[in-house]
Amino acid sequence: MESWISTGHLPTEAVVSQLVAEAHRRFGPVDEGKVASYIPALAAADPALFGVCVAATGGQLFEAGDTLVPFSIQSVSKPFLYALICQAIGEREAREKLGVNSTGLPFNSVRAVERADDGLSNPMVNAGAIAATSLAPGDSAEAKWAFIEEGFSRFAGRPLAIDGEVYASEVATNRRNLGIAHLLEEQEGIWFEPEATTDLYTRQCALSVTTHDLALMAATLANGGRHPMSGEQVVAPRICQVVLAVMVTAGLYETSGDWIYDIGLPGKSGVSGGMITVVPGKGGLATYSPPLDGAGNSVRGHLTAAFLSERLGLNLFASQPVEG
Ligand code: DON
Asked: pLDDT by residue (tens digit) across 287-297?
C-alpha cells in the first residue's frame, strides 16, 4: 500500500526557513484587498498584520511575522469540522447527507441551496457547514458543542477558546446564515434545530487561533490525521484524504479553479484573513493577513501559497520527464 500514499519531504530546514522569510518580505508590502466588514468586529482588524508559518509533518516549525497574533478561525474551520463529522458518522454517510460538489457560487450563497433539487452543497460553504454542524454527536446543543470544541482543540494540540467579541458581533448580524439553516430545514437537509445549529456553527467560526495553530492543524491533515507534536491521532488517515478532496474543488469557493491553477494543493480560506494549504505527507502552510479579494480570500495568503508551492516544490501536479 505504501506506493499509494503521498510521501516525500520538504527541502532542508535552511531552505524552508529562508523561503518562509522571503515570502514574508516579498508580500508584506502588498496593499491590495479589503478587510471583511459584514461581521462588524472583523472590520477592526489591522490590515498590516501578516504571519506565515510552515509546520512539517515531522513537527518542525518555520515562521515569519505575526504568527502568534490571535484571530477568529472563521471558514478555515470547515475542513476540520467536516473531518470530525466524517470520523463520527462515517465518510459515506457524511457525503450522502452534505454533498461534495463545488457550487461555483459565493460561500454564503442561498441560491446554491435553493437551486439544487436535493439541497446539497458541500461542507466548505456555509450551507454545507451548517448542515455538518447539525450532525455533531449529542442530543443537546451543549453536547454538540463539547464534541466540536474538543475536536478542534485536538486538531490544534491545545485547548481553543471562543473570541467573545467576534461571536457576539456575528450573532447580532447573522440573518443570512439563519436563512440558510431554515431553507435547509424545508429541504430536510439539517438534523438539529436550525437556530441552535446556526449558533453552534457561529461559535465554531469564532474559535480563536494563531497562524502557528493553523499550520499545525493543516499539518495534521497532511499527516494522516496525527498531530505532528502531540502525536494524537485526531481522525483516521482515510478521513484526511476525503477532506482534502473536497478542499481541492471547493476550499476557495468560486475561485477554487484559480487557486488550484496557481497553487496545485488543497487550501481553505476564511474571512478573518486566515488561510491554510495542505501538502499531503509533507506539512501544512498557514498565513494570516486580513485584506481579502472579492471572493473572501486573503490576498497575501494566496500570493504566499503560490510562491511557496513553487519554490518548495509542493505542487501536486508538477512532474518532470523520466530521464533516458
Ligand atoms: O458564516 C460566515 O459568514 C462566517 N462565520 C465565515 C465565512 C468565511 O469565513 C468565508 N470565508 N472566506
From this structure: 999 999 998 89
